[in-house]
Design brief:
The protein is α/β, with parallel strands linked by helices and about 425 residues long. It has two domains: about 70 residues; about 350 residues, Glycoside hydrolase, family 3, N-terminal domain (TIM Barrel, Alpha-Beta Barrel), CATH 3.20.20. The chain contains 14 helices and eight strands. Helix 3 crosses helix 14, helix 4 crosses helix 14 and helix 8 packs parallel to helix 9. The termini are far apart.
């Protein structure tokens, strides 16, 4: 064998040795694996690992579910809390926000309707509008000479209010009832020519609506936006104080005609004011001169006196006037209806559910002034539930009423939260009837 062949043979031996060693190692490894696979400890350990892994996975999933549930519960609580807060404290309306920002002096001014002397705005009424922020004015025969003069006067009144940036326009009112009480002889309705209540069939309701619409449109041309009408008292017959002012003695007919009149005013976008709650037709005197009594039972009131007011409320009357009357069946204390909380708030506002503006009759009438001062009466009227008061004639009485109301709120005798509700009703009414600036 040559050297070369010997070398090759050596190499082959080395390769065979390596191959045998590797084969031996693989055999040993296979035998080791086989040994572990056959060992019960190996399978026990493997089962334990799987069990631990499964438990860990379960815990992770439970934790996630718990977090999701907590988030959902939190959201539910938040939603419930939010819903509760919304139900308890509703968002303020635009008018409520406006009223909340108004100084108290301006709020009191919006609650007063005053009159003045002369054919053009006097220095006193200009001061009342611009310094006391009076929000409503009433004109009488003393203020009226001609259509052109009245139109100019009313335009001037609105201009004075605009100069001091009153939040809404003035209410400018008149008593154009028709019949015996009217400030213009050439503006309907004319209840006595003939009396609407004496018409037969369907003529009366149609006439009541048409005459109210016609009167409203004529008054608007002169700058009036409020008519203190219709009279929905049920007359007690011949000799009654309301005999020449009422639609008649039949409660059902008075209710129908009053409702149609309110519809006519509403269609003409004019503020109407049915009167005189709770019913002046059976009074034993005139509240201009003294404090009359209406001595009817509660049953009669419910059958006769209330239905006309219920009807005008159904028709959407924006305002109702309360009379100066003693009504024992409704308030046994002898307090005038206009100053009686059982009558104004408990009955008209709550039981009859009237949502609009409640206004007192003129506090300078003898029914009030023979018993108390105008300032005290103004406070009593607002405490009873009136949103507005009328002081129609004397500047000193108007100032007295204004200062008394202001002082009563500051002292806590009247609550400002109630004042806010009244002013909100007044401004909402003005907005509805297009008295925005």
């Amino acid at each position: 064998m040559s050297e070369k062949d010997v070398a090759k043979e050596g190499v082959r031996r080395v390769d065979r040795n390596k191959s045998r060693k590797n084969s031996s190692r693989r055999s040993q490894k296979r035998r080791g694996i086989s040994k572990w696979l056959k060992s019960p400890y190996f399978w026990f350990a493997l089962a334990a690992v799987f069990a631990l892994a499964a438990a860990a996975g379960f815990l992770v999933m439970k934790s996630r579910d718990g977090s999701a549930s907590a988030s959902e519960n939190t959201a539910t609580v938040a939603e419930t809390t939010s819903d509760t807060q919304t139900a308890t404290v509703p968002a303020a309306t635009a008018t409520e926000q406006l009223v909340a920002a108004m100084p108290l002096e301006e709020k009191i001014g919006q609650m007063m309707m005053v009159g003045f002397e002369g054919l053009e705005p006097s220095a006193e009424i200009i001061s009342a509008i611009q310094e006391k922020h009076i929000g409503a004015v009433i004109l009488f025969g003393r203020n009226i000479d001609s259509h052109e003069q009245v139109a100019n006067t009313n335009a001037a009144l609105q201009a004075h209010a605009a100069q001091v940036n009153q939040p809404v326009k003035l209410m400018i009112a008149v008593d154009q009832e028709g019949g015996a009480t009217r400030r213009f002889t050439d503006i309907g309705p004319y209840y006595s020519e003939p009396m609407i209540g004496e018409m037969g069939g369907d003529a009366a309701p149609a006439a009541a609506q048409q005459q109210a619409s016609s009167a409203a449109r004529d008054l608007k041309k002169l700058g009036f936006n409020t008519n203190l009408a219709p009279v929905v008292d049920v007359s007690d017959g011949w000799g009654s104080i309301m005999d020449v002012r009422s639609y008649g003695t039949d409660a059902e007919l008075v209710a129908e005609l009053g409702g149609m009149a309110v519809r006519g005013y509403n269609n003409a976008t004019t503020i109407s004011c049915p009167k005189h709650f709770p019913g002046h037709g059976s009074a034993d005197g005139d509240s201009e001169d003294g404090l009359p009594t209406v001595d009817l039972s509660l049953e009669v009131f419910e059958q006769s006196e209330f239905p006309p007011f219920q009807k005008v409320i159904e028709e959407g009357a924006p305002m109702i006037m309360v009379a100066h009357l003693v009504v024992p069946a409704l308030d046994a204390t002898g307090t005038p209806a206009s100053l009686s909380r059982p009558i104004v708030f408990d009955l008209l506002r709550t039981k009859l559910a009237f949502p609009g503006v409640i206004i007192s009759d003129d506090l300078e009438m003898g029914a009030i002034t023979e018993n108390m001062g105008v300032g005290a009466a103004a406070v009593a009227a607002v405490a009873a539930g009136n949103d507005m008061i009328i002081v129609a004639h004397t500047t000193t009485n108007q100032l007295e009423a204004y200062e008394a109301l202001l002082a009563a709120v500051k002292s806590g005798q009247l609550k400002e939260v109630d004042i806010n509700k009244s002013v909100t009703r007044i401004i909402d009414m003005k907005k509805k009837y297009r008295l925005e600036k």
